[in-house]
């Protein structure tokens, strides 16, 4: 994240990411992607008893190395997406950094004073068990709520955001009371 996104004197309270189970699923897919050709070659070797010419074996090795490269690229993209997708909660605002690809990133931020409501959704038994869910934040002036999916510990994030909103709003209330 660039330094200009955080104001001078602003403190980062939390960084929230997607739950690790989603990265684990993509990692398992990468491992299966790597193992699939080996299993296919093993089955083919057992089915056919005649020896393969060395040129064909070298071609299989080359194709498998390209396959491994593709699996590594998939894993790298999955890791980059997992690690760089982050919701940053500061004492003044919320910053959502969403990595859309290797070279494309979308950064959205809004001040805590603009928050009107927060909705948490845990869509399944697994999400309740593993403590992940979706968080929707309604802000003043926006028709569509701000939405972050599959984050780890959404209730803790909501509590932190709400406590900071109350702190800010009570400070503004004191200022407004002083003016009246």
Can you characterise this structure?
This protein is an alpha+beta fold and 180 residues long. It has a single domain (13-180), classed as Roll (PH-domain like). It contains four helices and seven strands, in the order E-H-H-E-E-E-E-H-E-E-H. The chain has helices at 20-47, 54-84, 125-130, 154-179, and strands at residues 12-16, 86-90, 93-99, 105-111, 115-121, 132-139, 146-152. The strands form two sheets. A four-stranded antiparallel sheet has the order 1-2-3-4. The chain has a three-stranded antiparallel sheet with strand order 5-6-7. Strand 3 and strand 4 form a beta hairpin. Helix 1 runs antiparallel to helix 2. The two termini are 41 Å apart.
Quick summary:
With 180 residues, the chain is of the alpha+beta class.
Task: Sum up the structure in keywords.
PH-domain like; single chain; 180 residues; 4 helices; alpha+beta
Main structural class: alpha+beta
Low-pLDDT segments:
none
Strand order, sheet with most strands: 1-2-3-4
Give the distance, in angstroms, between the N- and C-terminal Cα atoms.
41 Å
H and E order? EHHEEEEHEEH
Main beta sheet: 4 strands, antiparallel
* Beta-strand residue percentage: 25-35%
Helical fraction: 40-55%
How many strand segments?
7
Number of domains: 1
Mean pLDDT: 84
> Superfamily at the CATH H level?
Pleckstrin-homology domain (PH domain)/Phosphotyrosine-binding domain (PTB)
Radius of gyration: 24 Å
If helices are DSSP runs of H or I spanning 4 or more residues, what is the number of helices?
A: 4
The CATH architecture is Roll
Shape: elongated
Keywords: Membrane, Transmembrane, Transmembrane helix
Protein name: YdbS-like PH domain-containing protein
Domain YdbS-like PH: 89-151
Pfam families: bPH_2 (PF03703)
